[in-house]
Amino acid sequence: MSRFIALFAVCLVALASCGPKEDSAKPEAGGGDFKVALLTPGPISDSGWNALAYEGLKGVESEMGATVSNQEATGTQIRDAMRSYAQKGYQLVFGHGFEYNEPAAEVAKDFPDTVFVSSSGGLTAPNVGAFRFYLEQGFYLCGFMAGLMSKTGVVAMIGGMDVPSIKSTFRGFAAGAKAARPDIEVKEIYTGNFTDSGAAKQATLQAIAQGADFVIHQANNAAQGVFDACKEKGVFAFGANADQNANESGVVIASGVIVARPAFLELAKRVKEKTYKGEILLMGMEVGAIDFVLNPALADKVPADVKEKVEALKAQIKSNEVAVPKDEF
């Protein structure tokens, strides 16, 4: 009998292991009939690109009473995650990155009652669109400050993946640096991923060895490697996407910031009210979606005339007197 019981127990374990896998999405929050999902390429604990989108999602939850959920999804996971949320009755599925636009356009054909929106991308349909944060404006101001303050005449940009949306923000930074100092040299290095902080640190050390004394990044959750390298070599860094001025490294002199909550709320309201039309929206400083924030802890390191020039330029960008260059994609 004991052998039979043991065999029966083994069979139960085997059956359980073959059963449905637990959903990788975080449990739903909120209790409203309006349901909004967020897909991110990395963890929302990155204090940067993914965290700012999650802040936008939580704004939709708190201010609209929506039921919300989020999960990481990359590569082949993206389409499956989108389909899963649509099948569960989510009215809005937001993919935070250029890489979500093409899968959204494909999946949306099967789910006309779900709106799929990505942050950047050029494909649209009645229930597919994108809103592009005009982060180039914030990067332009970072570059302008770097150009005014650089002692070596060399600044650097450290990226993860070499994708159109990141290259465009780097174009903004380089343009800002050259507006301040036409002869400045701008280094551009990519590591090939957003997770390897060691690779990000080595890329930054390489740029610093080539003379860079100001560094900006688009490294997502690998950004700490950039900041650690800057601290080690005594150069300044810029935060990107989120306000990263309080980073423990103590080297982030300012940040080019996306303010996601207002944009997410406006999008969610249009979807809930069924007034959304598939389109590409450009969200910039004029609507409060982009900002440039000087680190108050390092404000004494920035000469008064530099502060004045940066603030004057910021006002001109906000009023559309100065058009910041960006790539179309």
> Helix amount, in percent?
40-55%
**Strands of the biggest beta sheet: in what spatial order?**
2-1-3-4-5-11
Give the DSSP E fraction (strand runs of 2 or more residues): 15-25%
| Average pLDDT rating | 90
Q: Which parts are unreliable, with pLDDT below 50 for 5 consecutive residues or more?
A: 1-24
Total helical segments: 10
The assigned structural class equals alpha/beta
Largest sheet: 6 strands, parallel
Termini gap: 69 Å
Q: What sort of overall outline do the alpha carbons produce when their principal axes are compared?
A: globular
How many beta-strand elements?
A: 12
Radius of gyration, in angstroms, nearest whole number: 22 Å
Order of helices and strands: HEHEHEHEEHEHEHEHEEHEEH
Question: How would you describe this structure in keywords?
Answer:
12 strands, six-stranded parallel sheet, 10 helices, globular, 329 residues, alpha/beta, 20% strand, disordered N terminus
Could you give a short description of this structure?
Helix content is 40%, strand content 20%. It has ten helices and twelve strands.
Structure description:
Strand 8 (214-218), helix 8 and strand 9 (236-241) form a beta-alpha-beta unit. The protein has 10 helices and 12 strands. By secondary structure, it is an alpha/beta fold. Helices cover 40% and strands 20% of the residues. The strands form 2 sheets. A 6-stranded parallel sheet has the order 2-1-3-4-5-11, sandwiched between helices. A 6-stranded mixed sheet has the order 7-6-8-9-10-12, with helices on both faces. 50% of the residues are buried. The chain is globular. Helix 2 packs across helix 9 (260-272), helix 3 packs across helix 4 and helix 5 runs parallel beside helix 6 (164-180).
